[in-house]
Structure formats: structure tokens, C-alpha cells
Amino acid sequence: MTKRYGKTLAVDNLSFQVHPGHVTGFLGPNGAGKSTTMRIMLDLDAPTAGGVRIDGKHYRELAEPLSYMGALLEAKAMHGGRSAYNNLLCLAQSNRIPRARVDEVLDIVGLSAVARKKSKGFSLGMGQRLGIASALLGDPKILMFDEPVNGLDPEGIHWIRNLMKNLAAQGRTVFVSSHLMSEMALTADHLIVIGQGRLLADTSMADFIATNSRSYVRVRSPQHEELKDAFQRAGLTAVEVGDGSFEVEGADAAKAIGELAAQNSLTLHELSPQQASLEEAFMQMTAGSVEYHAHHPGDPTTPGAPGPQWGPGWGGAPAGDDTEKKG
Ligand SMILES: Nc1ncnc2c1ncn2[C@@H]1O[C@H](COP(=O)(O)OP(=O)(O)OP(=O)(O)O)[C@@H](O)[C@H]1O
């Protein structure tokens, strides 16, 4: 689908599928179009072109939408003057959901003790839990969460991760957005990555980790050319990177390099095993499509900077190919 707001192309010919039994992470930097996509999925906004089908149907064609697809959106509209219990009861009654389910979901999200308190006094985290309770109310087979960890404390974050995994293990479809790769790495088993409304990757988490958890050794010497010759003679593949250092694949290469330097009486100023983080890989991938971007020299998100190579599974052009918008 495509969604345009005036001159802004919020979603650009985006196409992907979300499957049951998995937690699918929907990842993208701020302004990438995640919330817009989710709103369109729920028929809260109309696409400019294309559309979303849920088991072949449009959202509005679902007989009992709340029992089919539950959602927590970023700004959940709750009546602040009503108690948590009454907010959920109203939703239950207008969707023919039994009253007993209200107590059940309040218990699941840990709000039973404050069920009779007005929701306007709730903290951000409590509000998130109430939003999650309303998503679970209809016991739906599809669940969608837009940035659910926002405002949750560490215990809350741990709880929501397990909740999502359990829902997927029950065979449900769980679709969750985030702008944090580190969060997704702990929760999702499939990833949809978008930038500027476009699909950048549609891959399993395992493939993403295998491709991007690259370990290598960084080597720096004032005798750069001599070291380069020594690498060649020893048959070691060392890649020269822009800042005057070399990168040699494999964290365990440090020993061989140290010995090689000693044998050739070469001084080393750096010999450091490195592990590329998934967060770096995500930043590198979306570097060309970040709306609001601060640049720092040597920043791994700077287009053209050395970074992980994308495997054959990647759907988009390598970062740096796009025209960059500086904020
Ligand atoms: N109602 C709207 N009117 C005009 N522009 C909009 C509207 N909603 C979203 N946009 C624009 O569409 C683009 C995508 O926004 P969207 O909120 O979907 O991104 P997002 O990935 O959810 O970002 P975030 O992580 O910051 O919530 C942005 O450029 C945003 O400014």
C-alpha cells in the first residue's frame, strides 16, 4: 500500500505478510511510517493506494473485529474520567464480550488492584497496561502493538516480552512495532524493517543475527604499508578501512596478527577484537532513510562508512544509496 499526506509520502508501495505463530517485529526509525501502516490495518485511516487484507478480508468486513484483531496503538483513546474497569466494560459491552472477561484481562495485565481507579491518574506504564488489556479483551487471534514498551519499567518490559512470546506460542499472530533493534532482538522471531515508508528487509531474526553479528579484529599500525605486505605474505585477508586501520574477519584472528607483527618487528597501536552490534547493523541499514539525523565523524550511520554486508535476503538497496535528508 501507499499513503500520502499532502507532500509527505508516509508509506511507499509497502508490501509484506505477517504470519501466525510468530512475533513479527515492525522496525523502523522515527517517522518511517510504522504507525501509519498500523492505523491503515485497523481501518483508522485510508490508504492512498493498495490496502490490507486480514485472512483475505478488509478490517471492516470482519464480523467481530475486536475478537479477531486486538490492537494497542501509541495514543490509545481511553476515557480518563472512567475507571480502568469501566473503560474495559464499555468496550466489552459494545462488542458483545462477556463481563467476566474484563476481570480476566485486568488480572493478566496486573491492574486488578487499581481496577476501580480513574484511568486519568494512571502512569504511562499503567496506561500501556490498560491499552494492552483492551487489545486482549476479545481474546483475538491477531494482536498488534505499536511501541508497547514505551513507558514501561524493566519489570514491565520483561512482562510484555513474555506476553508477546506466549501469545505467539499459542498460535496467534503478533505484530509489534519498535524503533529499537535491541528490543526486537529479544522479542521477535521475524523482522520487517522499513525506512521512509519503504521495505528495507523482510527476514527471520535468526538470519538477521547470522548476517550481522560479525566479529572481526581491528588493527592499526604506524607502519601501515609494511603491515599490509606482511598480511599478504601470510595469506591473511585484511580490509583497509577509511580511518587507516585494517579489519580482519574473526575475533580469534588477534593472536595470529600479534604474532605476525612480532615476527616482522612491526609496532601495533591497536589490536582489538570487535563485535558488530545488531543496533549498528540496523542504523547502517536505515542510515539513508532517517528523517531526523545527527551526524558525528566516524559514526557508523554515516553513509559510506564501513559496516556489515547485507546478505541475499535483504529487500532494499544498501544504506547510502538513498539521497539523505538531514534534519
Ligand atoms: N496525520 C498526518 N498528517 C500528516 N503527516 C503525517 C500524519 N501522520 C503521519 N504523518 C507523517 O508520515 C510519516 C510517517 O509517520 P508515522 O507516524 O507513521 O511514523 P512512525 O514510523 O510510526 O514513527 P514514530 O516511531 O516516530 O512513531 C512522518 O513523516 C509523519 O510526519
From TrEMBL:
Keywords on record: ATP-binding, Nucleotide-binding, Transport
Region Disordered, annotated ranges: 292-327
A family per Pfam: ABC_tran
Keyword ATP-binding: yes
Comp. bias regions, Low complexity: 299-308
Residue ranges annotated for the ABC transporter domain, each copy included: 1-221
UniProt xrefs under SMART domains: AAA
One GO molecular-function entry: ATP binding
Keyword ATP-binding: yes
InterPro entries: AAA+_ATPase (IPR003593), ABC_transporter-like_ATP-bd (IPR003439), P-loop_NTPase (IPR027417)
Domain of life: Bacteria
Family: Belongs to the ABC transporter superfamily.
Record-given protein name: Vitamin B12 import ATP-binding protein BtuD
Organism in which the protein naturally occurs: Streptomyces smaragdinus
Gene behind this protein: btuD_7
